[in-house]
């Protein structure tokens, strides 16, 4: 019997354990029941060889079960970024290091996933209930491109395939905020019947496309006047500067503690939502404006370099707004808002 040179660590451990147990059992049986110690040495040698051979045979069989994947290397080469609707070109390489393997299919998958939050209620043995919020992962889209159907691959052969995969035109852009986590993975799979698949994968960033939006103005009325917010553009990339004007028209005397402009990130992921002010600048402090006065205040807000792009999926959404705020003592703040789009691709 010729033993294969390559064995998994699990196989060697199994051989050692089975050999030890087998030897112990043989010793126990011989000493306990026969009492013939003169034959003990011969029996031990025979039992050891028998058990080692059986263990290696067992390992060889186990390696063909779904617990083990074929020995070999699967490689994947593809761009790390793409736009919705774009075609991704890829190359797959497969180098097997064992006897021939029957493959059901070799394919590439583009998988979109998100993490969001759900509320679950459980009942105890005495009728008490407990509600918890937990994170849940879900796949919301999967595109597949097969490069090979069923076939036989022989040892030592290095096989390669080239192909392309279409990204959905409505693909949700990748985005990672405090709550929102939308991600894409490009995965090469060699589907082997009765065995674990060979898999190689890489993260794929689906970029949020840029849109050249012009200036826009929003207004909000209140008893003492009107507040208007003007932005020169409602789209920006991380690291860019948003510029605009805040115009305050006063009908009655107005005492202000402060006037400020804020950049706010708003996230919703399942049952959880959160709004965070990421940039803020004060334009006025401790000011009183008389009736018929008008104040026009220029401002600039920088979008953080690591700002996640605007995105939306079946269970999650990440939005950005610019907010003008009148801060008044003992009164609710007066606010005017304008939604903007943060994108991650070049225009």
Written account of the structure:
This protein is mainly beta and 347 residues long. It has three domains: 9-62; 72-206, Sandwich (Immunoglobulin-like), CATH 2.60.40; 216-342, Immunoglobulin-like (Sandwich). It has helices at 9-34, 40-62, and strands at 72-77, 81-82, 87-96, 101-103, 105-123, 129-148, 151-153, 158-166, 175-176, 181-191, 198-206, 216-222, 225-231, 235-236, 241-250, 254-269, 272-289, 294-302, 311-312, 316-327, 334-342. Strands 2, 5, 6, 9, 10 and 11 form a six-stranded mixed sheet that branches. Helix 1 (9-34) runs antiparallel to helix 2. The longest helix is centred in the first third of the chain and has 26 residues, at 9-34. It starts with 8 loop residues before the first helix and ends in a 5-residue tail after the last strand.
List keywords for this structure.
347 residues, mainly beta, Immunoglobulin-like, six-stranded mixed β-sheet, 2 helices, 21 strands, 54% strand, elongated, disordered N terminus
């Amino acid at each position: 019997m010729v033993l294969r040179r390559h064995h998994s660590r699990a196989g060697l451990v199994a051989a050692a354990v089975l050999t030890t147990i087998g030897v112990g059992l043989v010793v126990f049986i011989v000493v306990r029941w026969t009492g013939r110690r003169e034959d003990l040495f011969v029996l031990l040698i025979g039992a050891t060889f028998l058990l080692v051979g059986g263990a290696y045979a067992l390992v060889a069989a186990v390696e063909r079960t779904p617990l083990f994947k074929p020995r070999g290397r699967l490689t994947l080469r593809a761009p790390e970024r793409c736009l919705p609707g774009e075609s991704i070109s890829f190359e797959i390489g497969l180098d097997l290091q064992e006897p021939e393997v029957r493959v059901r299919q070799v394919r590439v998958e583009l998988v979109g996933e998100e993490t969001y939050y759900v509320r679950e209620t459980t009942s105890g043995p005495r009728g008490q209930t407990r509600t918890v919020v937990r994170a849940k992962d879900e796949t919301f889209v999967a595109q597949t491109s097969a490069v090979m159907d069923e076939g036989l691959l022989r040892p030592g052969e290095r096989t390669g395939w080239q192909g392309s995969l279409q990204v959905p035109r409505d693909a949700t852009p990748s985005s990672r905020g405090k709550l929102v986590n939308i991600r894409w993975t490009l995965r090469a799979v060699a589907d082997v019947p009765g065995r674990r698949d060979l898999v190689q994968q890489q993260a794929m960033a689906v970029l949020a496309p840029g849109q050249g939006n012009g200036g826009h103005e929003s207004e909000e009325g209140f008893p003492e006047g009107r507040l208007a917010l003007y932005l020169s553009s409602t789209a920006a990339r991380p690291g860019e500067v948003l510029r605009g004007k805040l115009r305050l028209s006063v009908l009655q005397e107005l005492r202000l503690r402060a006037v400020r402009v804020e950049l706010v990130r708003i996230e919703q992921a399942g049952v959880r939502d959160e709004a965070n002010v990421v940039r803020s600048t004060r334009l006025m402090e401790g000011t009183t404006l008389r009736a018929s006065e008008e104040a026009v205040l220029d401002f600039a807000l920088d979008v953080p370099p690591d700002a996640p792009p605007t995105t939306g999926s079946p269970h999650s959404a990440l939005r950005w707004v610019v907010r003008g705020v009148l801060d008044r003592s003992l009164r609710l703040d007066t606010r005017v808002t304008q939604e903007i789009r943060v994108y991650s691709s070049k225009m």
